[in-house]
Amino acid sequence: MLVWPRNERALLSDRLSCCEPLPLEYLGGALRGDHDVTIHDLRIDPPLEQYALSHEPPDLVGVAIPYTTSAHVSREVSREARRLWPNVPIVLGGHHPTVSAEWLDGFAADWVVAGEGGAPLSHLAAELEAGRTPTPVLGLAPYDARTGLERDRRPKPAALNNLPMPDRSLLAHHRQDYFHSIYRPVSLIRFTAGCPYTCKFCSLWRMTDRRYLVKDIDRVLAEIADIDGQNLYVVDDEAFIQPARMLELADAIDKAGVRKRFHMYVRTDTALRRPDVIVRWAEVGLDSVLVGAESMTDEELSDYRKGTDPGQTRRALDLFHANGVKVRANFIVQPNWVDEDFARLSRTVEELQVDMPSFSVLTPLPGTDLYDESRSELISDNPELFDCYHTLFPTRLPLESFYHRLADLLAGASARTTPGVTSGADPSVFYYSDDSAFDEMLRSLRDGADWSRPREPERLSSTG
Ligand code: B12
Ligand code: SF4
Fold first, then answer.
1. Which of 413, 411, 401, 415 is nearest to 340 (CA)?
2. Cα-to-centroid distance, 128 and ligand 1 (Å)
3. Fewer CB within 10 Å of terminal CB in the chain, N or C?
């Protein structure tokens, strides 16, 4: 049984975005044929206690820790699984344990997986089934000795083509429940992994040592064909790095008669370098892009090692809009901002006509250069704060004022009447389409100062 946690305190709540747990479908694909797999999505499925009343205990429980911010909720899930099924082995895995050994204390667990989980999990399941004590392999360590998972030993997704297809049948019964922003229902799909750029706040390039890994066109088409729905959220770190391949893929999609709506991540400079690729993708279904605009000042962009400039952001937005492609642009809010900085960003969003603006507080996510250089300056050890809506750095404004300005920024952006190409017929603005959930998010944001006082002081694991 593979369990995806539910985080009731998440600001980006399940009512604002709830996507299929693609990582678990990949694991299901790796185990397919050899083991019976159940994915239990606690955002939709009943609590484990209720499930246990009418089901036999599983032989192995896998608990996902998808984000640093889910460390606490995943820890509770592991403890609940141990309480219900005391003799069943438990394995942890996900993005958080892949990039960090911190905040992993106190789980009820026997094994930890870091990196691509298919191979280590298959090994673990086979050994347990054969009644042997599993030996640690690359990416798999006993929970009590998780120091074995240092960064250089974590398996990288070396060859995406060799990964088994995700087993989407495992969540067929929830297909209509998953949505993201204006895409409802939505399916997640991955064409590539990794990124050759080196943004200071990003962990993704470090996970593949800056290598860019691609799936063959045929494999991508096979994965698309496996999906019934119309809306595809492509979770590549940067989908358009190889323009010739992307043109080939667009042609193949066209030739195969595939008619889908794609939401994809792209850098502004990548798009501008080959506008023809964007034009072609708009023809075959590119509906919206997510661009990391981050800032409209050269100074901040250079601090982030983003490698783009504000002029590129403007020109790229024009390119997308000219081709009817909606833009979700993310901007970084700096903890040291004062009122004028927030006002400046509000004006920028208005002026650029960003269809779906989003804002992240500069967050030192584990596994980033920013984290490594600022670890000792952080104002809290609470993993919940690593959600890009809270500050871990000291603010120049009083904390309360900082969070109020941030909430005002979101509220103002969502209240705009003429956002980019979505104006008129389709006024939905990113994930703010559920008004009451959005209001709740704003209320929690205004309470942000409370969050920054650690609720559960805890020592960091010495293995970090
Ligand atoms: C899609 C996505 C989302 C989607 C939804 C994801 C979902 N399914 O619910 C949305 C938009 C909702 C989202 C939200 C957030 N996200 Co997000 N998201 C992603 C993204 C782009 C892709 C995730 C994915 O599907 N990857 C593909 C799969 C196949 O890869 P994988 O996770 O590596 O899985 C493998 C291994 O980890 C392992 N594994 C995974 N789980 C398990 C479990 C077990 C038991 C085992 C053994 C192994 C195992 O095996 C898997 C298969 O090989 C990633 C970036 C990335 N490249 O991963 C960011 C990412 C995960 N998100 C991130 C963040 C910060 C967030 C937010 C906290 C912030 C925000 N404001 O957006 C929120 C949290 C929301 C919440 N409610 O808690 C960060 C996490 C960093 C961190 N240290 O926490 C990432 C890495 C992006 C980044 N900027 O660095 N996200
Ligand atoms: S933020 Fe985007 S462009 Fe920068 S390193 Fe990460 S994936 Fe690459």
1. 401
2. 28
3. C
